[in-house]
Amino acid sequence: MAWLVTGGAGYIGSHIVRAFLAEGIDVVVIDDLSSGHAEFVPESVPFVHGDLLDGPLLARTFAEYPITGVVHVAGFKYAGVSVQRPLHTYEQNVTAMATLLAAMQDAGVSRMVFSSSAAVYGTPTTSLVTEETPKNPESPYGETKLIGEWLLRDQAVAAGLGYTALRYFNVVGSGARELRDTSPHNLFPIIFDALLDGRTPRINGNDYATPDGTCVRDYIHVADLAVSHVAAARLLDAGTAIEPVYNLGSGDGVSVGEIMATVARVTGIDFTPDIGPRRAGDPDRIVTSGALAARDLDWKMRHSLEEMVRSAWESRQAASVS
Asked: What domain of life is recorded for the organism (predicted)?
């Protein structure tokens, strides 16, 4: 018996694959490699190169492998770019998910752990976000993630699907030197690329109502995130009651200024970040409580900020010499 990890060749998906294997659970990966890397998939793991919009391919995959559940990580994940490419975002995140759910129903696969996002909240009016915080997505990306949760809810009623959606905030770090975040839109790669190119990283605004004037956000280690996916899958396999959504966050957060200082200390590259103008709509502080996930999904912050930065930097350096 195995779990299918969609997007399992990507940064987050590849860590989830490793977490399942560490617990002795077989996995199958499907990925179109639009942002993933085939070398992130262990040689022992069956790899299907393909698109979730391809219903016949999904049917063949479910027929070929003994899949009992799906961790759905694949999708178009760039909130800012989604504003310029709404049709593509909806196709990749909504149409593809509906196609996947239809293939699951046809194959009798009735369990899903869904990679959702804090983007469903938009700009919260409270500094501590909970699962009950009103949803007000502000980009096509956030909208499609919320629609994905609705699809799961409706499919549970229609076909008895067992599921949960995990809402991530800012995922960083690395659980293995050969696995790294290669997104050009995420903070850590942006900082590292600037330093390696001889440029000075920039902070967008330093006059926020926070201790050091820079935005405070919730950063979590990707390996900690992966552990909770396995815990959710185990609950679904056991038929144990599970919440429809969980937030995965630290409860306190760190500032962009703290991250910059930690990067300088870990890398040994002394720099003072440039200060740019505020970005429109950036709130002072967004942090989530992970209490519900801690209760049910073995969620905890196992890594300090320095460990997050160091692991990410080591994986970036390993990529530079390979």
From this structure: Bacteria
In degrees, rounded to 5, the angle at the alpha carbon of residue 312 between the alpha carbons of residues 298 and 265 is 110
Q: Which residues contact 280 (CB under 8 A, 6 or more apart)?
A: none
Cβ contact 174:311 at 8 Å: yes
CATH number (domain holding residue 206): 3.90.25.10
Q: Are residues 97 and 192 in the same domain?
A: no
- Same domain for 11 and 121, yes or no, is yes
- From 11, 78, 141, 246, the catalytic residue: 141
Question: Is-catalytic flag, 65?
Answer: no
> How many domains are contained in the chain?
2
- Quick one: average pLDDT of 292-298? 97
Each residue of 106-144: pLDDT tens digit? 999 999 999 999 999 988 888 799 999 999 998 999 999
Distance CA(249)–CA(69), nearest Å, equals 25
Q: Are 256 and 162 members of one domain?
A: no
The count of other CB atoms within 10 Å of the CB of residue 173 is 27
Q: Which residue has the tokens 């809402």?
A: 167
Distance in Å from the first CA to the final CA of the chain:
35
- Torsions phi, psi for 61 (to 5 deg): -65, -45
Looking at the predicted structure, is the pLDDT value of residue 56 above 80?
yes
